[in-house]
């Protein structure tokens, strides 16, 4: 069965095993069953407390040279394989968090290792160009055949700007939106002398008082522009200056959704009315007009907060009505985990959003946009590297594997199964967990308190599951696209035994 | 002679040639002379106009999907070698610009290709971790043995934060400075409820009105925080909102320096007085106190503007007096081109600056800082990737080659030679070029007009030299660290014939 689902894994398994699978004994026969992927162990195994003694020693070393309060453990990436993270103390953890959702195919995927073993790709990695000035001969082809390929690029978004990470993708998308907005206001007139001079000293009219609207609970990055649109946790923001930009309420739904339809619809309307009010207030009162609205299709870091397709449709209509660009931030949702390449494809929008940003599972950062947002002049959206061909070559392999192994379909199917099982568990343990929600394997559930959430995450560790929290009381699943029902069952067994205990 | 200077190049040449040197005929004998490096051609060769027909066709393709006004040509990186960039039309250009100063060892350096051919390194590239949560087992060692090694880290700066690029290094360094500054003001008190709540909606006191002082002509990046400290060209800034932060004058020296000592000293004092005035004005009048001062040791993008060691010493004393952090931005100057690992080592500062940022030639971005700037809490300076071990492994090789081949000494010696020759040429053509200045091979000269500058850069292309401008009238040299007198002579011959013509 897995043989059919993951032909490439099977095809390449001998290659993958040669390099990395030294710790696990696996036979080709077992790979044909609905079980672990080739090279993976049968199940997690925990030998020490986590962090174990070796992690603890390394943490002490690292703490001498940097702030390490966020470090959970030290990993042995050469021994990690597929859905399993192996740490330096020999613990083998089923990883449902996957490096904050950034590894699409799990550890040491043979196709990625194969690409990196290719000398032609090594030349690309050794010669990182300034892409905005001296792109390599294959660059236009690569953009077309990888990022802009049908089924990869969001429908209708024909323009691409490559970047390095999620924050800089959003920052540059903001700039792109400001340029577009200013050009509209200028009606084709050239820059004035006053604009050219005042921008050099950060003053208007050259540095205009425009804003990007964001939502409470949002996470869009941590550089000063993107941080001004991030509102998930105070520790990300405190003591750092921010722009005075408008922040609207994001819907807070009551679960289960099917029992709260009317209230949740009202919640949509409340939030959309706030959007309208803020647009007016920042335009007429504050004189900081809204040029763009940034929103996650699912607020991730902020607690896996979902909003209805109707909410997004109406939000887009409001933006259009006011001549404001809609930026959908798919840094965490993009690249397949929701069962579609882009989460916003679930929303049946009237037309493509103006901008879609990406990073994480896409390996390379950047943004897609509508042709009318293409900057009119060179060097306005620019930096030394403008992305990295060494990351695009990895993305190419990832997309090939997603297609060949039907990993979008896999994410849908496994996600449906996981969601169903979790909801049934929620009914069983309704005093502890609730509000199971998700699309594809992009799933979360809430715990009855922050304390319980933290305890569950810790106990999951002791049972060999690497999970992650989000928001204040939620646990989020962010497995690789190669996660199957087999892995779901291991996770659920561990969770059930914790909830029972 | 070169054999002694570049033992590793010679040692590895057969490896390097096997992969890439298909277009050039070279013999081991010739590599022993003071001539081209192994695998390099004797001299540039230009077959077409630049951009040639193939570049022009590719440019048209790329323009369909993005703004391409900054693209000069399309390169064939597999054929490029050492100091020579080969384009898609078969033109072989001596590259004195090196991807906006970002390639330390030139094209297809055998040591870099060797590192990428190592399967252990391929595993690192295939498993990019979230370094802030799950660092690999070698990470503490790698930081210590590569970035923090004696002779690599600026003396006294024992703390390291890795990032991805120059802009995000500066942005995160700003945040780090704001946290340090706020903690000092707080005198150990915990965050207040008001601070925790107000920062979530971008309002003070949680989002404080603190500023970073920068200098006219500076370039520190293009994301919204770093762009607020960039003031080199209006096209980078116009139509993009900026923070109201103070901007002081950077010294504008008269050249030749030895004939204008007194005036230039007065210029230093004028600028330093402005720094003091702005600190006072932003503190008492504007109520946006200065938490940090960011400065390049040589303003690069802004025109290769130099300031004296005394200026930097006094600037540091002013910063210390006011409890303000000094951030030296070594994104373009760091990694060896000035003949020292860090350009600010030329300044004999009283004590280490609080922060030094880097990227470009260092392959990985990030910043060094003093222990007292270490954030007190986790997740304040954080992002998904926090750098990239796949770039650190390249830096490790680069630093090994710099040491083994004495490339800092090489940059000093070749730079001195180049500077001397250029000054002599400046005397010969004083109506066209002037103000030759530099440290190591980090050299620039001014042209009598912007028009002449652009013409010279274009004519250099036609003579097989890839050069770059900076400021409004300057041409900058940013060669690889492997650039020798042999290459200087080729550049100077081309320049002389243009100035004569």
Please name the defining characteristics of this protein.
pyridoxal phosphate binding (chains A, B); EC 2.6.1.19 (chains A, B); 17 helices; homodimer; Aspartate Aminotransferase, domain 2; 13% strand; 4-aminobutyrate:2-oxoglutarate transaminase activity (chains A, B); seven-stranded mixed sheet; PyrdxlP-dep_Trfase_major (chains A, B); alpha/beta; 501 residues; transferase (chains A, B)
Please characterize this protein's 3D structure.
The structure is a homodimer of 501-residue chains. Chain A is α/β, with parallel strands linked by helices and 501 residues long. Chain A folds into two domains: 1-117, Alpha-Beta Complex (Aspartate Aminotransferase, domain 1), CATH 3.90.1150; 130-403, 3-Layer(aba) Sandwich (Aspartate Aminotransferase, domain 2). Helices cover 39% and strands 13% of the residues of chain A. Chain A has 17 helices and 16 strands. The first copy, chain A, has helices at residues 2-5, 7-20, 28-31, 53-63, 98-101, 110-116, 119-126, 139-147, 166-186, 193-198, 224-227, 261-285, 309-321, 389-404, 407-428, 450-462, 485-500, and strands spanning 84-86, 92-95, 159-163, 211-215, 247-248, 290-295, 298-299, 305-306, 325-329, 355-358, 365-369, 433-439, 442-447, 465-466, 468-470, 474-477. In chain A, the strands form four sheets. Chain A has a seven-stranded mixed beta sheet with strand order 3-11-10-9-6-4-5, with helices on both faces. In chain A, strands 12-13-16-15 form a four-stranded antiparallel beta sheet. In chain A, strands 1-2-14 form a three-stranded mixed beta sheet. In chain A, a hairpin with a 3-residue loop joins strand 15 and strand 16. The two termini of chain A are 35 Å apart. The interface between A and B is large, with 130 and 130 residues.
